Amino acid sequence: MSKAKAKAKQVKGKMKETAGSAMDDERMQAEGGAERMSGKAEEMTSKASDKIKKSTGKS
């Protein structure tokens, strides 16, 4: 997944989390938090992959 898609997933998760909080919906809050953290993990994986490619000279 690209860094842009991972960031978008984080934003979507944060929005879901906020909406869940506003509606007092704990399940929606939890789903949003999980989605946000998943996006963060994907972003970190993408960054690590980019660093490895850069250090080995591969594109």
- Percent in helix: over 70%
Q: Structural class of the secondary elements?
A: mainly alpha
Rg from alpha-carbon coordinates: 15 Å
- Tell me the span between the first and last alpha carbons: 16 Å
What does it look like?
With 59 residues, the chain is mainly α. The chain contains 2 helices and no strands. The chain is rod-shaped. The model has no long low-confidence stretch (mean pLDDT 93).
Topology readout:
Blueprint: H1 3-22, H2 26-56
Helix pairs in contact: 1-2
What tags apply to this protein structure?
single chain, 59 residues, 2 helices, rod-shaped
Task: Offer a quick outline of the entry.
With 59 residues, this protein is mainly α.
